[in-house]
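Forum: Protein Structure Q&A
Topic: Joint prediction for protein chains with partners

I've read a bunch of threads here and the consensus seems to be that you should model interacting components together rather than docking separate models afterwards. I'd like to see that in practice. Below is the full input, 647 residues plus whatever partners are listed. Could one of the regulars post the assembled result?
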Amino acid sequence: MEELILKLKKEIIEVLNLEDIKPEDIDDNAPLFGEGLALDSIDALELIVLMEKNYGIKIKDPNEGKEIFKSVTVMAEYIDKHRTK
Amino acid sequence: MVVKISDNILSPLGSTTADNYLAVKSGRSALMLHESDNPAVAPYYASLVPEDMLTVEGDYSKFERMCIQSIEAALQQSTIDIASPRVLFIVSTTKGNVHLLAKGAGEGRILLGETAKAIATHFGNEVEPVVVSNACISGLCAQIEAMRLIECGQYDNVVVVGADVQSPFIISGFQSLKALSDGACRPFDAERRGLNLGEAAATIIYGRKEKAEVGEWVIRSGAVRNDANHISGPSRTGEGSYLALRKVLEDVDVNDIAFVNAHGTATLYNDEMESIAIERAGLVDVPVGSLKGYYGHTMGAAGILETLISMRAVEDRTVLGTRGFNTLGVSHPIRVQKENGITDKSTFIKLISGFGGCNAAAAFNYVN
Amino acid sequence: MINHWVKIEKDKVVVDGKQIEIELSESESLLNTIYKNKIGDYPKFYKMDPLCKLGFVASELLLDAEGRREEEWGEKRGVVLFNASSSLADDRNYQKTIEGDDVFPSPSLFVYTLPNVVTGEICIRNHYYGESNFMVLRGLDVEKMSQILNATFADTCTESLVTGWVDCQSEKEYSALMFIVERGSFDEAELSKL
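Posted by a regular:
Agreed with the consensus. Here's the joint model:
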């Protein structure tokens, strides 16, 4: 799981262009949205693309995404359970 | 003052403004399910102009053929000298010939200025054309620009044409934003689930008059304002739309307003935002309508097409119903017009908003 | 009177007629370098497409030259920009995400496929609620731009405009000429000389 979390953080930094942020700056359990990384609705949609592109997980409803993107840990657990690639 | 000289709408519902108005009044819509052979595009609901409606020949794209056909029809009802150096073409579009990118184009008519030049040149007009590309509000901005340039004496006439053609580029993009409804769109409704895309070209020719005569349309005032909030999400306070409305209402008596023709795309956030702006502007007692249930979102054409249908409605003493609307689904108590109704008022407000946080409003007055 | 103006071309930056020294490196683009050295407090910059980056950097240098003021402009300042390439640089980037075997349309690239988004970015950064508009011409046409700028002041709320030419064909080919115009003082001849 730790490996997946680190990989995920690197992918998030890359697809969301978080230039000034390093993997260790992202708290495993802190909310991805709201304060902190200052992500917005477009970032959430881009994370949906990431889930499908890298892990074969399709998320149809953006509201579903809200639950999954609660934190990097929640995201990693979801991926671990549902990934098809 | 600046008056409308002539006009046209070319859409799946007809190739004249009159046909379009009658279709809308009778509740027709061209929204239907389409499929694409492009793997980037999932099946989608849209209102598309069929090839067999187009009559223009020559080395032109679908976008250009639609614009030229619409302008030709508008010109037939007027006597202006289209080739005069006192006549300016303003083209309103968001993506023009963007489909050419798939073929690797990097210059020529993929550039909006070049496609506008080709259109103006078709009519023998040599004045450098202007393209307004201000997202979804382009069509209203182009009219406001025309009004100002005529008022300050720069040109005698301005031909404003707006159009967009749907392509995998645009459809896949809106799908990636999860903004499209999987059925016909439902503006302001509690069950609304997103917008539909549409194709159309619409033309309005403006000119100057000392005094408008009975039966003429005057573009009274217009304003453009930014939300300064987010590049794709509408303001939670309806800031830009409210400010644009407030500015336009300086010149208009609220009691003279027949209706507000809103943007009403049927996305959750747009319609909610407009309800806030309309309430803040003190227009809760004025009927509000959206034409997206008939045409979908025709992008560069929308501001012009929806202005023209609204003009016909006022001439016909009608407040058009909002196709797809059933139960109010926005938090502010605006008066969304469900079925066609009647009015004896002669002014309407066009309201519109778009990506980049832009918003515009304009007031139009029928002399009777 | 045009009191403040910024010109950005390839590897040259000029503010109010004076060239700014920028230390260029192999690994960093000019716009990223200016952002890091002169701005630095707006991480959203890295999410922007090439056209917005260009317009954003130019506007920041321009507004620094003008001197930031305490009270907000609100509705009194508009942003009206022109170019020839629309959002072509980002259009190309988005197009790549819908071509080939692996098709994953990118929402964050798609939102920038409208040229007026750059006016929105400048309004957001500076809390400008005034008019925002974007127009495309075949080239930097001083006469046409002047006609439109003069006409824009028909809106009685508009006291000044951040305006000019912001054209971006690709990450490497771009040019900007941005300036501030105050109500009643715009002179076409002055613009021709910049």
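Chain C has one domain: 5-193.
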